[in-house]
# Entry
Amino acid sequence: MNKTSGQAQVGSNANGEGGGVRGWWRNRFRRGLVLLAGAALGAAVAGHGFVAQRTLFAVRRGPGVTAVWRLSDFAPGLRDTRGDTEVYVLAGAKPGGTVLVLGGIHANEPAGYVAAVVLVENAMMAAGRLIVIPTTNASGFTAGDPQEASPPAFSLPTASGPRWFRYGGRGTAVTDQWPDPDVYLHHPSGQTLSGSQTRNMNRAFPGRADGNFTERCAWAVTELVRREQVDLVIDLHEASPEYPVINTIVAHERAMPLAVSVAMALELRGIKIGLEASPLNLRGLSHRELGDHTPALAVLMETANAAEGRIRGRTTPELIVTGQDKMYVRAARAGRLFVSYDEQGHPLEQERVRRHLAGVEEFLKAWAEENPARPVVAARYPEQAVIEKEGLGRYLRRS
Amino acid sequence: MIHEVVVIAYRLIVLAVLVAVVRAALSKENGGSLQVMAVVLTIPLVLRLLMIK
# Structure
């Protein structure tokens, strides 16, 4: 091959390539190098986006936060991994019981973790302790689910500017636990589930100290419940609107009397709520295993999130926040849903987070009434009327 | 421990495939469409090798 002297102009070469730029480009080795350089640039841009998603949203210490722990304090194997996360403690001046609120076990169910953040940044306790983990499955926030086309983040408006939150995937990230087996064998029950469920933290409880990454994350929560003598665990979730367990409390049998009181109180406040017993034959869920393996009462609450539904339209940050989706309106008109669905959708702020916050508030009240020796009482709590009217802007500041 | 071993084995396999793909991209035997196809394949392979995605 002929070489030129610093010019793109080349003469005919041994391969019969012509001169000029076209001839230079026809050299397949040089062309391959140029294309590979372009691919490297593409990989760098794509890689930067994926790595950026590993930075989770900031949670501010509210006036009621008295201590911040790490989840790895309860399972040292999680230290320096993406499963470690902050645990916020809101302790009152008077002694009492302990309530644990879990958000973000499924990182694609934002009402749970946004409600947890609002609690950390605004609630204050008068008696007892409220422990809150907004990003319980921290790994899940670092990557979305494959083939879901979900946005990596969404924002909520506040007076000081937009407040950003990550929107992650249902399980722990494949970069933290891989490969998925063909069949997931739950420990210790031996229940078998689809292999992809091995990264579902809400199928991994109670977990084990020397288990896989997801089991170790679940084990840390179980250890926290045991060591801190948690009385009540409230696990905040969402589900697709076509799922039958929506706007519902799921309660372990020991927690059922308390959950009945809460369901009645919510109905009296005009919040429609269902009540389901924790299935005995579906293992690994927080309400089943924490109820069975620790002294705590365990419940879970669900709201309707169209962004994780199967019949949704385009998946955008607006869908996450507004819950407005015309396909779900059509499905509701056809009688295919278990919740009502109209053009107003199921907004994240005014409905889904508000519903979770109301549920936690009623659980605190019911617990204090039924356990006067171990009360957990809030001195300051986000107001339902304000959230219904204005959204969460008064309770959140910009990122 | 088994997880780390599996990940190392996986990365070695990805590296082997990546080397083959880069060779295909630079080969004087392959036409433009094959070169482009090989180059496009390098992007996910690099991200996999670095365990970014």
Notes: Chain B is about 80% helix and 0% strand.
